[in-house]
Design brief:
With about 625 residues, this protein is mainly alpha-helical. It folds into 4 domains: about 10-215, no CATH class; about 235-320, no CATH class; about 335-415, no CATH class; about 440-620. The chain has 29 helices and 6 strands. It has helices at about 35-45, 55-60, 95-100, 100-110, 115-125, 130-145, 150-170, 185-190, 195-200, 235-240, 245-260, 270-285, 290-300, 310-320, 335-345, 365-380, 390-395, 410-415, 425-435, 440-455, 455-475, 475-480, 485-495, 500-520, 530-545, 550-565, 575-585, 590-600, 610-620, and strands at about 10-15, 20-30, 210-215, 355-360, 385, 400-405. The strands form 2 sheets. It has a 3-stranded antiparallel beta sheet, covered by helices on one side. Strands 4-6-5 form a 3-stranded antiparallel beta sheet, with helices on one face. Strand 1 (about 10-15) and strand 2 (about 20-30) form a beta hairpin. Mean pLDDT is about 85; it is low at about 65-95.
């Protein structure tokens, strides 16, 4: 499948335990990955091909911690360990030899990092062939100075030796091995097969399923957490696609094109000077040719007028790229992708690359099912559909969406396998994880609302319990009131969902009363910034009271708090103006009383700042009125 012509890297081999699909690991491949090119050559030429690293059944067994999305040396036919996995602190440190052997060689050669050294010596060397024997000798010396591998690493090298031995016995002719440079001496050594089998005795058994998933070029970088990645995937792809003699010129041309697209002026003369400077920098730094650092520095000087900030506006696009891989139609899909296809077929929603509008009536089964799927995907970070006029649709039986499917959404779904194997389970799992990260009542309330719209009753119940517990532990007025908008929406929206909102309604009323009782004290002696912040909280809370079925006592408690603020000379003038406006709009403040309040607030005895604060609060959003 990897060599299929319909397979478009970057793609990732996805392995997961069949009895626990959340236990998953990825092995990414780029076009320029040695493993990918070796695979294509072998398939095209009819050569036997096999992975030789430890099986995924060992890596994903319950007794072993699951590797994250870092595949340094985790691919059985791995790329050379060319990239440093940690900053180099001390050249002589044992850790440097074992974790970053290439970095140790780079330091000896006068380089700051192993990535730059490997690019000069191997990747961008016009004739790198003889270098590999020297690197193998260097690795032997480094391994002699380091401690012998133990545990997992020792098992890996034992398994690889046994697989190579098996291949040499089954094959007439040469056997080629693609592996990390660090492992070369170990794989060439005359180790005892009996000793290697003893190391692998008792290997854990775990049923494994495998598939391919589209990947993205930014996820091939170190910064994405992929330890075997590269510093600049976009640059590596450029080198692969471009004749070596034209690499610098065409890279600068790409930078110029990006700048011109952003309406910056880039002259041909500036491009010529940039290329000259790049070659001069390479000579000063003893590099055989300009790398992306030299071209970057030259571009900043000659094309960006010395402004690094201008370079940063296009560096992400250039250095990391935006490529998304594609997989053939006959590839068995990961559980979440399979479930998505089932759900798309069930609710009759076809993914399309073009934007289209979708209006849903939540009173119909089909409308509710479609809405539920789109909300669950949003929770998983897959915005296939985006709600339009959100403020108007909340609390009603109609939703309007804009739909557009992007290829990278498949990658996002694969990444959510850690939360569950189906859309519903993964959405619930992700909400549960986010509950643990919620820092205040507002965050919890938003999650409860999202859980309700996604039809996740257990998650809603869990969230309500957490809110009740948090509300009972805090006396922070702003925190209490800031949770009301989302909770009030949830109560009203619950009418269109198959969820009993009675418990939620009772909780909202309790929080409103608690917030109202503390509000008059919370707005005293505030500076301008604090008053401005709580003004938004009070406005939003008052709007929420219109969505909640309050009894007379509950409504009176809220308005009594507002009235107490208007009568309190210690209340922030801005908030006093807000409270007066809200009472006036609710016809709880007679026109003559409002006039009297304004007269007092704007009297010559008040400071200009206090008068202005009350005026702003009272007339906010009501200029025409």
């Amino acid at each position: 499948m990897l060599a299929d012509v319909a397979m478009k890297p970057p793609v990732a081999l996805l392995m997961y335990a069949t009895d626990d699909p959340a236990h998953v690991s990825f092995w990414p491949f780029a076009t320029y990955s040695p493993e990918y090119q070796a695979t294509r050559w072998a398939v095209q030429n009819g050569a036997a091909l096999r992975f030789i690293d430890l099986p995924a059944s060992w890596r994903l067994a319950p007794s072993e911690p699951a590797p994250s999305m870092d595949a340094q040396d985790e691919q059985s036919a791995a790329a050379p360990d060319a990239s440093p996995t940690a900053p180099i602190e001390a050249p002589s440190a044992q850790m440097t030899l074992e974790r970053d052997p290439i970095g140790a060689l780079a330091l000896a050669a006068g380089y700051e990092d192993g990535e730059s050294w490997w690019r000069d010596v191997v990747e961008e060397n016009p004739e790198p062939g003889p270098v590999f024997a020297a690197i193998a000798d260097a690795m032997s010396a480094l391994r002699d100075a380091a401690s012998a591998p133990e545990g997992f690493e020792a098992a890996r090298e034992a398994h690889m030796r046994l697989e190579i031995s098996k291949a040499t016995k089954q094959t007439e002719g040469p056997v080629a091995v693609v592996c990390g440079a660090w492992h070369v001496p170990a794989l060439q050594s005359k180790a005892s097969a009996t000793a290697d089998r003893a190391l692998l005795k008792g290997a854990p058994k775990q049923k494994i399923a495998a598939t391919w998933a589209p990947w993205t070029s930014p996820r091939l970088a170190f910064s994405s957490g992929y330890r075997a990645g590269v510093t600049a995937p976009g640059w590596c792809q450029h080198l692969w696609d471009t004749p070596r003699s034209a690499a610098a010129t065409r890279w600068l041309a790409r930078i110029a094109a990006s700048l011109r697209e952003r309406e910056h002026l880039v002259s041909t003369a500036s491009l010529i000077e940039a290329e000259r400077l790049a070659y001069a920098l390479a000579a000063l730094r003893d590099r055989p040719a300009p790398g992306f650092e030299e071209l970057r520095d030259a571009a900043i000087s000659c094309l960006c007028f010395g402004e690094p900030l201008l370079w940063h506006t296009l560096s992400q696009e250039l250095l990391f790229g935006s490529d998304v891989g594609a997989i053939p139609h006959n590839v068995p899909l990961a559980p979440l992708l399979e479930d998505l296809q089932r759900e798309q077929k069930r609710v009759r929603l076809k993914p399309e690359a073009l934007e289209r509008e979708l209006s849903l009536d939540l009173r119909s089964d089909s409308g509710l099912d479609r809405s539920t799927l789109l909300h669950r995907l949003s929770l998983l970070g897959v915005p296939w559909g985006k709600l339009t006029d959100v403020g108007k649709s909340r609390g009603t039986f109609r939703e309007r969406w804009t739909l557009r499917w992007e290829p990278e959404y498949a990658v996002a779904l694969v990444e959510n396998l850690i939360h569950g194997p189906t859309i519903a389970q993964a959405a619930a799992g992700k909400v549960s994880a986010r509950y643990g990260e919620a820092a205040n009542l507002q965050a919890l309330a938003e999650l409860v609302f999202q859980s309700l719209t996604a039809q996740l009753p257990p998650a809603v119940e869990t969230g309500i319990e957490l809110i009740e517990r948090r509300a009972g532990q805090t006396s922070d007025c702003a925190e209490l009131l800031s949770s009301l908008p989302a909770l009030a929406d949830a109560v009203r929206y619950g009418q269109a969902r198959e969820i009993n909102a009675a418990q939620l309604s009772s909780l909202v009323k309790r929080i409103l009363v608690e917030g109202a009782l503390t509000l008059p004290y919370a707005v005293r002696h505030l500076d301008a910034a604090a008053a401005s912040a709580i003004r938004g909280v009070i406005n939003a809370a008052d709007k929420s009271t219109a969505l909640i079925d309050l009894n007379e006592d509950e409504r009176a408690t809220w308005r009594g708090a507002l009235r107490a603020i208007t009568d309190d000379p210690q209340a922030a003038p801005l908030i006093a103006g807000v409270a007066a406006r809200l009472l006036y709009a609710a016809e709880e403040l007679a026109p003559e009383d409002a006039a009297l309040l304004l007269s007092r607030a704007l009297s010559p005895g008040r400071s200009i700042a206090d008068a202005a604060g009350f005026f702003e609060g009272f007339f906010e959003g009501a200029g025409e009125l």
